[in-house]
Design brief:
The protein is an all-alpha fold. It has one domain. The longest helix has 33 residues. 20% of the residues are buried. The chain binds protoporphyrin IX containing FE. The site of protoporphyrin IX containing FE (HEM) has 20 residues, from helix 2, helix 3, helix 4 and helix 5.
Length: 148
């Protein structure tokens, strides 16, 4: 385990890089859904949105989430980094699972669009776009400031 302690700052840097990529894609995907709502099913525009959404999710968001979890868990098992008698690790874990849950919903809405079976409005996706934003702000404050 001592290699983890030696590599702590590198692992944290890789964690933050993968979190940035995960968040960038997660904040962009619902914007595509907002505009996709106006594209006629079967139209060239709608088919183009489908390709963009699939590549963004599978090429960036999913791998970045996997990497954020991998490096985050390596940080958790690094001796001396997380003291579970504090409150911040539990708060962060709960919010990270909420972030993973909204990721799951975004993925299922992509499938609906891919099958020309979208069920929600532009305003619904605008509102959903705010959820990862609020979670992101809360997670970064909790893990950097460690209030409790
Ligand atoms: C995916 C599951 C995640 C796990 C298991 C995890 C775990 C961790 C751990 C154990 C640390 C080290 C804390 C320290 O060095 O004191 C850390 C640092 C950090 N995490 Fe995560 N994290 C995850 C997701 C996220 C997400 C989604 C965000 C932001 C949206 C985030 C932002 C950060 C930041 C900014 C740091 C650096 C904090 C500092 O240097 O003070 N993490 N993470």
């Amino acid at each position: 385990m001592t290699w983890l302690v030696d590599a702590y700052l590198w692992i944290k840097a890789l964690h933050i890089i993968s979190v940035i990529a995960w968040m960038a894609g997660t904040l962009y995907l619902p914007r595509l859904y907002v505009y996709h709502c106006d594209a006629e099913p079967g139209s060239v525009q709608s088919e183009t949105f489908k390709v963009m959404e699939r590549r963004l999710l599978r090429g960036i968001i999913n791998p970045a989430m996997f990497a954020a979890f991998l490096f985050g868990i390596l940080l958790i098992v690094t001796p001396g980094v997380v003291d579970w008698s504090d409150t911040w690790p539990w708060l962060k874990t709960a919010l990270v699972f909420a972030m993973a849950a909204i990721h799951g919903f975004f993925a299922s809405w992509r499938r609906h669009f891919a099958n020309d079976a979208n069920r929600h409005s532009r305003n619904f996706y605008r509102a959903m776009n705010e959820v990862p934003t609020v979670l992101l702000v809360a997670i970064v404050i909790i893990v950097v400031v460690k209030p409790t």
